[in-house]
Amino acid sequence: MNLSRLATSLVTVTAVLVLVLPTSRSVAQESLRPSDPIAAIDGDPILLGELNYLLASKLKVKDLSDVNLDVQRASSALLVRQHMALQTLRQQGGTDLQTLLDRDWEEFLVALRRKGLNLDEYCKQFQSDERSVRQSHDWDSAWRRYLKSMMTDANLKRYYELHHENYSSARWNVSHLFIAVDKQSRDSQAIAEQRIQDITSQLQETSDAAEALKTKFAELAVRESEGATADKGGGIGWVSQPGDLPTAVMKAIRETETGSVTPPVLSPLGYHLVLVHEKKVERVAYEDVSDLTPLRRDAATALFDALVARHGKAKVVWYVKQLQPPGN
């Protein structure tokens, strides 16, 4: 198990997911110094240098002025969570952990000198400062050690037993209602969205009665659906994996209880509603799981979230309002 790669993935996933969003750029790098705080958690500052270092060293951004604002916000929010998680690890590890972090830092400095660099030169490469680089290094080191101690085969098996349905072979008997969106028409999506919302409202009127919901869904599918099985009341039988239906639709099916209808799902083709009639799960023994990568990723995320949750009541103050995530 490559714990270092897993840790890096967890650190950067939030920011990577929003790289495709076309948004305005931040001016924080132009008006502030790396040592200036962008936020604080119970008075403990998060510095601009930490954000710059995350973007440049983890996401391999060469020109920080080109990073759009949503990426910087997501990265800033991740830094807040990392600070909270590291605080929990420091409380748990005490002086023993600090001794290890100090040793790791000294080894990092030695490695820099072997490359012919000093710390000031290294910091300038990433538009950062010593305190920010040390904070990032401490987090990476503490998190790596924590993962190594926690991600044992026994713990991974225990996590699997608690969440086995997410990794077992499952299939669902469903009915499908589909409203197409014409990408060539400017108003098509708005019209389709209104239609799917109207259909959803009608279905909600019968959501408490299983048979009535099934009958109503079939009637609406015949009358409104543009899918291939509309004349059959939307019934398409058993589905089990992306490819049977679009990925986003399959995800919604997984999250919907038997006898219920998914929320409206927008795919590249149009809007979907799915009535889940039945679910069958073929449980796979932990020893027979062929690819443990998703399980390891999810277990690491759960560990990270648990560390953050210890400081869920911490007061976060944003000094650079541009970087404050929506809802914070």
UniProtKB/TrEMBL annotation:
Keywords: Isomerase, Rotamase. Pfam families: Rotamase (PF00639). Its EC number is 5.2.1.8. InterPro entries: PPIase_dom_sf (IPR046357), PPIase_PpiC (IPR000297), PPIase_PpiC_CS (IPR023058), PrsA_foldase (IPR050245), Trigger_fact/SurA_dom_sf (IPR027304). Residues 169-278 form the PpiC domain. GO terms for molecular function: peptidyl-prolyl cis-trans isomerase activity. SUPFAM superfamilies: FKBP-like (SSF54534), Triger factor/SurA peptide-binding domain-like (SSF109998). It comes from the Bacteria. PANTHER family: PEPTIDYL-PROLYL CIS-TRANS ISOMERASE HP_0175-RELATED, PEPTIDYLPROLYL ISOMERASE. This is Foldase protein PrsA. It comes from Stieleria maiorica.
